[in-house]
Design a protein that fits this description.
The complex is a heterotrimer of chains A (about 160), B (about 260) and C (about 270). Chain B has about 260 residues and is mainly alpha-helical. Helices cover about 90% and strands about 0% of the residues of chain B. Chain B has helices spanning about 1-30, 30-35, 35-45, 50-75, 85-120, 125-130, 135-175, 180-190, 190-220, 225-255. In chain C, about 40% of the residues lie in helices and about 25% in strands. The chains are: A alpha/beta (about 160), B mainly alpha (about 260), C alpha/beta (about 270). Chains A and B meet through α1 of A and α3, α7, α8 and α9 of B.
Chain lengths: ~160, ~260, ~270
C-alpha cells in the first residue's frame, strides 16, 4: 500500500464521517427545523408548565410558528417564565391566548397559540398575558379525590 | 483473600499512575506527530479505514434490530410512529459511541497493542531509541492520535448506518409512514444535546481506548506470551473503561 | 592513540542482583574490540551501558569524551547520533521496506533531499552486497540478509562507534563468514571503532584486534587474538577450545550427589 492510496482512503474516510455528521444533524436532528427566519422573542408566564422543555415547538392551528428558547422561574410570583422565539413571518394579536398542550396521550408538550381579536399585534419583547397552564394529571386526580372525600360523611 | 484483593488494588493504582505518567509523556511528544502528519495519516488509515467494514455492517444490523424490537414494544402502546425517535436517540446518545468504541477496541486497539508489543519484542523500539529517535514520538504518538481522530468518525458512521437500518426495517419492511418516522425523529433529537454529546462521548472513548492500547503495547515484557497477554488486557481494560466512562458522561450530560 | 570508549571500575546491578562487579576496559580509536564470555555474563548489559540505555551504579564510563551516565536526554541523543548498534536479530522495522529501513536514520536526522538519500541508501546497500533488494520487506529476507540490511542501516550516518550485539548468532557458516568480513571491512572503511559482543570465538578471533574475556561480571582475561590462542590461562583455554568441564564447572552448584540421593532415603 503506497502513500497516495493511503491518503486517498483517509480522505474518503474523513468525508464519510463528515457526511454522517451532516446526515445526523439535518435529517435526524432538528438543526434544519430549528432555523427560524428573522426571529423575535415573546415571553409568557404560566402557573405550571408541566413537562414543557426548551426547544419545544410553538404552534398555531397546528403550524409551527416558533420555538421555546428558554424557561426560568420568576422569583417574585413563583411563575414559570417562558421565552419564545417567534418566526418573523407571523404576528399575533395582543390578546392571544397561550396554552400548554400535549400531542397525543403521551406525546411531547408544546405551546399552542389562539389568536384573539385585538387590532394591535404583539411586538418583540411583549408578554403574552392570557395563558393557561399545563394539565397535570396528578393534580386532576387529587382534586377529584378531595372533592369525593369532602362529599363523604365527615365522621371519624 | 483480603490480602490478594489489597495487592490487586495497589497494583491497579500503580499501573494507573504509570499510565498517567505515560500519557503526560505522550502529550509532551505529540507536537512532532502533528508536524509529521503523514505518520498520523497512516495510522488513521490502519485504525479507521480498516475498521470501516465492521463498523458499517454492525451499525446497520444494530439499527435493524432496534427497529424490530422497538416496533414490537411500541405497537403495544399504539405509538409506532415514535419508532424513529427511539432508534435515533438510542443510537446517537448511547449505542453509537459505546458499540463503535467496543468494536474499535477489539479491532483497532488490539492491533495497535500487538504491533507495538511486537516492535518491542523484536527490539525495534530499542533500535530506534539507539538511533536517537524517540519511540514515543515516532511510534506511539501517531498511533494514539490516529485512534483519537478515527473513533468519533466511526461512531458517527455507526449511528448514521443504524438510523438507516432502523429506517429499512421500520419504513420499508413494516410500513410505518416515512414522513412521521423522520418528523418524529427530528422533533425530539436535538443537535446540541444529543448529537454533539454523542460526539463528545466518542472522542473521550477514543482517547481512552487509544491510550490503553498504546500503553499496554509499550508496557509488554517483550515475549510472545507477553504480547498476547497485553492484547487481551487491552480489549478487557478498554471495554471496561468505555462502559464506566459512558456511565459517568451520561450522568453529566443527560441529567436535565 | 586515544581511546574512544573507556570504562573504569564500572558496576551495575538489576535490583539486588549484581551483574557487573567493576569492569575496566578501553576501546582505542579505529580498532575492533571483541567482548567475549559465556551466556549471561553481562556482555549485553555492558553494551547497553555504553549506549546509555542503562545507568551504572558506580564507576566511570566515557564515550567520545562524554561522561555517559551524567548526560541528560538531549545530550544522550546527541551522543547516540555518533554511535550505532546492530541488534542481535537485526531489529529491522517490519512495516518499512529495506530501502526505507536504511533511509530511516537519514530521514530522521538530516534534511537531505530525497535524490541524495536515494543515492546514499544504494551506496550503503551496495556495501553490504544487497543492492537490488531495496524493495523487499523484512519478512521476505533470510536471517543473514536481514542482518546485512541492519548493518547497512547502522552505518547509514557513518558512526564513529559501532556496536554489534551477537552478530553471529543463529547464522549459517557462509552468512557468518560474510558478516565477519563485513564488520572488519566496514570498520576500516569508516575509520570507526567497533565493539563486538559475542561468544563465537573462532570467527571473532579472525577479525578483531583485541579481546576482553568477561566472566561473572569481571574481565578475566584480555589480549590480542594471538595471545589468546596461545594463552595458558585455564579459563581462556576452556572457553576458546570449547571444553565441557574446567574452571567453568559443568555442574550447577549443589550438595554432593551421594548426599542428595541418600539423604532423601534417610529422611
Amino acid at each position: 500500500m503506497n502513500r497516495t492510496t493511503i491518503d486517498l482512503w483517509v480522505g474518503i474516510f474523513v468525508t464519510l464521517g463528515a457526511l454522517a455528521l451532516v446526515f445526523l444533524a439535518l435529517k435526524v436532528g432538528n438543526l434544519s427545523g430549528g432555523q427560524i427566519r428573522s426571529p423575535y422573542s415573546l415571553t409568557a408566564n404560566f402557573d405550571n408548565i408541566g413537562g414543557l422543555k426548551a426547544r419545544a415547538p410553538v404552534k398555531s392551528a397546528g403550524v409551527v410558528v416558533g420555538r421555546i428558547q428558554e424557561i426560568h422561574l420568576d422569583k417574585q410570583h413563583y411563575q414559570a417564565v417562558v421565552t419564545i422565539q417567534m418566526d418573523g413571518r407571523y404576528t399575533f394579536p395582543k390578546d392571544t391566548f397561550a396554552t400548554i398542550n400535549t400531542s397525543g396521550l403521551l406525546g411531547e408538550q408544546y405551546i399552542g397559540l389562539e389568536p384573539g381579536g385585538d387590532p394591535d399585534d404583539l411586538k418583540p419583547g411583549d408578554v403574552i398575558k392570557k395563558t393557561q397552564s399545563a394539565v397535570v394529571l396528578e393534580k386532576l386526580i387529587s382534586q377529584f379525590m378531595f372533592s369525593k372525600a369532602a362529599e363523604g360523611p365527615a365522621t371519624k | 483473600m483480603f490480602r490478594l484483593v489489597g495487592a490487586r488494588t495497589i497494583n491497579t493504582q500503580w499501573r494507573l499512575g504509570v499510565m498517567a505518567r505515560f500519557f503526560g509523556l505522550l502529550l509532551w511528544h505529540s507536537g512532532s506527530s502533528f508536524r509529521r502528519l503523514r505518520l498520523t495519516l497512516r495510522e488513521i488509515y490502519f485504525s479507521g479505514v480498516l475498521s470501516l467494514t465492521i463498523i458499517l455492517i454492525s451499525g446497520l444490523f444494530v439499527g435493524m434490530v432496534l427497529g424490530l424490537q422497538g416496533y414490537e414494544t411500541l405497537q403495544r402502546y399504539g405509538s409506532e410512529e415514535v419508532l424513529g425517535t427511539l432508534v435515533a436517540l438510542s443510537l446517537v446518545r448511547e449505542l453509537g459511541p459505546v458499540l463503535a468504541g467496543l468494536l474499535f477496541a477489539s479491532r483497532a486497539g488490539s492491533a495497535v497493542t500487538a504491533e507495538i508489543g511486537l516492535m518491542k519484542a523484536t527490539e525495534q523500539l530499542a533500535a530506534m531509541d539507539m538511533m536517537a529517535v524517540d519511540p514515543v514520538a515516532r511510534v506511539v504518538a501517531p498511533r494514539f492520535w490516529g485512534g483519537v481522530i478515527s473513533m468519533p468518525i466511526l461512531a458517527l458512521l455507526f449511528s448514521a448506518m443504524g438510523v438507516f437500518g432502523g429506517y429499512l426495517v421500520g419504513v420499508v419492511m413494516i410500513g410505518i409512514d416515512s414522513g412521521s418516522f423522520w418528523s418524529q425523529m427530528q422533533a425530539s433529537v436535538d443537535f446540541r444535546n444529543d448529537i454533539v454529546n454523542g460526539v463528545i462521548k466518542s472522542v473521550v472513548f477514543g482517547v481512552a481506548v487509544s491510550l490503553v492500547a498504546v500503553f499496554e503495547g509499550f508496557d509488554t515484557d517483550g515475549t510472545a506470551e507477553g504480547v498476547s497477554r497485553a492484547t487481551t488486557r487491552t480489549v478487557v481494560t478498554s471495554s471496561l473503561a468505555i462502559l464506566g466512562l459512558d456511565f459517568i458522561l451520561t450522568s453529566f450530560m443527560f441529567r436535565g | 592513540m586515544s581511546s574512544l570508549v573507556s570504562l573504569r571500575d564500572v558496576r551495575f546491578s538489576y535490583g539486588n542482583r549484581d551483574v557487573l562487579h567493576g569492569v575496566t576496559l578501553n576501546v582505542p580509536r579505529g580498532k575492533l574490540v571483541a567482548i567475549m564470555g559465556g551466556s549471561g555474563c553481562g556482555k549485553t548489559t555492558l553494551m547497553r551501558l555504553i549506549g546509555g540505555q542503562l545507568r551504572p551504579r558506580a564507576g566511570q564510563l566515557t564515550v567520545c569524551g562524554a561522561e555517559v551516565p551524567s548526560l541528560d536526554r538531549e545530550g544522550l541523543y546527541d551522543l547516540r547520533r555518533r554511535m550505532s548498534m546492530l541488534f542481535q536479530f537485526g531489529a529491522l522495522f517490519t512495516d518499512l521496506s529495506v530501502f526505507d529501513n536504511v533511509a530511516f536514520p537519514m530521514r530522521e536526522h538530516t534534511n537531505m533531499p530525497e535524490p541524495i538519500i536515494r543515492d546514499l541508501v544504494l551506496m550503503k546497500l551496495h556495501a553490504v552486497g544487497l543492492r537490488g533488494a531495496e524493495n523487499l520487506l523484512p519478512s521476505e529476507l533470510s536471517g543473514g540478509m536481514a542482518r546485512r540490511v541492519a548493518l547497512a542501516r547502522a552505518i547509514a550516518l557513518d558512526p564513529e562507534l559501532m556496536m554489534y550485539d551477537e552478530p553471529f548468532a543463529g547464522l549459517d557458516p557462509i552468512s557468518l563468514g560474510v558478516i565477519g568480513q563485513l564488520i572488519r571491512k566496514l570498520n576500516d572503511a569508516l575509520g570507526a571503532s567497533s565493539i563486538v559482543v559475542t561468544h563465537d570465538v573462532q570467527e571473532s578471533l579472525q577479525i578483531v584486534d583485541y579481546v576482553y574475556f568477561l566472566s561473572d561480571g569481571k574481565v578475566v582475561a584480555e589480549g590480542t587474538p594471538d595471545e589468546i590462542r596461545t594463552s595458558e590461562d585455564p579459563w581462556v583455554h576452556q572457553f576458546v577450545w570449547g571444553e565441557a568441564d574446567g574452571p567453568v564447572p559443568f555442574r550447577y552448584p549443589a550438595v554432593p550427589y551421594e548426599e542428595a540421593l541418600l539423604g532423601v532415603q534417610r529422611a
